[in-house]
Design brief:
The longest helix is centred in the N-terminal third of the chain and has 17 residues. The chain is globular, with a radius of gyration of 16 Å. Strand 2, helix 6 and strand 3 form a beta-alpha-beta unit. Helix 1 crosses helix 3. The protein has nine helices and seven strands, in the order H-H-H-H-E-H-E-H-E-E-H-E-H-H-E-E. Strands 3-2-1-4-5-7-6 form a seven-stranded mixed sheet, with helices on both faces. 45% of the residues are buried. By secondary structure, it is of the alpha/beta class. Helix content is 40%, strand content 25%. The protein has one domain: Vaccinia Virus protein VP39 (Rossmann fold, 3-Layer(aba) Sandwich), CATH 3.40.50.150. The protein binds S-adenosylmethionine. The site of S-adenosylmethionine has 23 residues, from helix 2, helix 4, helix 5 and strand 4.
């Protein structure tokens, strides 16, 4: 096995572990060990292109004057904020204090909140003009309930750009959740953009996310 293949195999193991998480306590424990190696041994080794793809979709959709401040949901080590080059006021929220301590070193965030989003919006303010997320609505992490709870953090008209792992989208029936939100006039202008989660040569190339784009009514 070459050095590159060894690194990929290790990164695939890390991803498998993350998908198998069961609850918030598991998540906090797992990401405590994952945080110091996340950028290099996971993101770089597996060609994790999802954060920059998500940021690109968001920047294409945003109206220059109405999208700040932005909230990065499940911000982890800060890869989405690093790619959001057109935005200066970005806050991040994450369950893991260890992931947040790496995010802090990137100097991309105005404010970071350590909060479990399965318990509702907690300390988050309700005036965001944009809400983005990559990698957090996935197996073993957040489901449709957290998405509905998050709506309160955006002001009316806020642009949401929420990436959801494509298998998780099916399994957790996000389709039904979005149909309900549209029917109740909680959101408008709903579209979906399919994007690759990884580039390169690992066995995860081909994994996709459905990036849901909508506005809060
Ligand atoms: C795969 S990482 C994605 C991080 C970053 N967005 C990226 O794309 O690199 C998933 C993140 O979701 C966070 N997370 C998982 N469950 C959470 C919860 N209940 N509340 C808040 N954050 C959570 C984890 O701590 C982790 O940082």
């Amino acid at each position: 096995m070459t050095d590159k293949q060894g690194k990929q195999a290790q990164a695939e193991k890390l991803l498998k572990g993350a998908y198998a998480l069961k609850n918030s306590k598991d998540n906090a424990r797992y990401y405590r060990d994952f945080a110091p190696i996340y950028d290099e041994q996971f993101a770089e080794a597996l060609g994790y292109s999802y954060p920059s793809a998500l940021a690109g979709i968001y920047m294409e959709q945003q109206q220059p004057d109405d999208n700040t401040p932005v909230l990065d949901v499940g911000c982890g080590t800060g890869l989405v904020a690093e790619a959001l080059t057109s935005n200066s006021k970005i806050d991040g929220v994450d369950l893991s204090a260890d992931m947040l301590s790496i995010a802090e070193t990137k100097r991309c965030y105005r404010q970071l909140y350590c909060h479990d989003l399965t318990t509702g919006p907690g300390p988050l303010p309700g005036d965001y003009g944009g809400v983005v997320s990559a990698g957090t609505f996935t197996h073993g992490h957040l489901g449709p309930d957290a998405l509905k709870d998050l709506l309160v953090v955006g002001r009316p008209g806020a642009l949401f750009c929420i990436g959801i792992n494509a298998h998780h989208f099916e399994q957790a029936d996000f389709k039904k959740a979005f149909a309900g939100l549209l029917e109740n006039l909680a959101i408008s202008d709903y579209t979906e953009v399919v994007c690759d989660i990884f580039t390169g040569s690992s066995s995860h190339v081909g994994d996709q996310a459905i990036v849901t784009v909508f506005r809060k009514m």
